[in-house]
Amino acid sequence: MILRSNSKIGSIMTHSHPYIPPEGPPQDIRLNPEIYTKMGQECIFKMLEDFYAELEKSSIRPLFPENMQEASKKSAAFFVF
């Protein structure tokens, strides 16, 4: 199966060979610290808890760990710490 990726780039992606930009994959991805300032730790944890609760009902559920509550906490910690 062939999927078209970003038409601006005009590249093609297959299941076995994902598109990698000529300069390579991003090396320094940083989250904007404003997310913590604007939401606060408690709201970030709640947002990820709610998101993972929706994933629990999703057709892509098998892609995630068995313990979704623990997974949501780990994801939230990524934004907070």
Automatic annotation (TrEMBL):
<protein>
    <submittedName>
        <fullName>Group 2 truncated hemoglobin yjbI</fullName>
    </submittedName>
</protein>
<dbReference type="InterPro" id="IPR012292">
    <property type="entry name" value="Globin/Proto"/>
</dbReference>
<feature type="region of interest" description="Disordered">
    <location>
        <begin position="1"/>
        <end position="26"/>
    </location>
</feature>
<dbReference type="GO" id="GO:0019825">
    <property type="term" value="F:oxygen binding"/>
</dbReference>
<dbReference type="GO" id="GO:0020037">
    <property type="term" value="F:heme binding"/>
</dbReference>
